[in-house]
C-alpha cells in the first residue's frame, strides 16, 4: 500500500551517500552539493498515479508514475534512466536502469520514519526522514 508513504518527509540523516553517488557515477562537484543537501520528500497518490517530489534549496525533482509500469526518468544528477516502481513486502522499490547499470532505492516505514536505502552493487546508503 502506497498510502503509508503519503505525506511530507524531512531528511534527518544520510549515511554513506557519497559512496553511493560515486558508485552510480556522480561527479565530484555534484556530490559535494548532494552531500550538503537535505531535501524534503513529498509523496502523494491520486487515482493510481504516485508522485515523488524531492525538494531542496538546491534542486527540486519530481516523478509521477503508476506502480509496476516502466517510465523514463531524468534523475537529480541528470542520468536518463528507465525506472519502475513496485511495492515489495511493504517497501516502495524504485529500480533505475541506464547504460547497462541498475540501482535500486528501497523506501520503507520503520518506527514511524521513512527509511530510504539506496543500493548499487554492494554499496548501500541509508537516508532517514521524519514526517513533518
From TrEMBL:
Source species, domain of life: Eukaryota
Molecular-function annotations in GO: retinal binding; retinol binding
Extent of the signal sequence: none
Domain Cytosolic fatty-acid binding proteins as annotated: residue spans: 7-24
Record-linked InterPro entries: Calycin, Fatty_acid-bd, ILBP, Lipocln_cytosolic_FA-bd_dom
UniProt function note: Cytosolic CRABPs may regulate the access of retinoic acid to the nuclear retinoic acid receptors.
Name of the protein: Cellular retinoic acid-binding protein 1
Organism: Muraenolepis orangiensis (Patagonian moray cod)
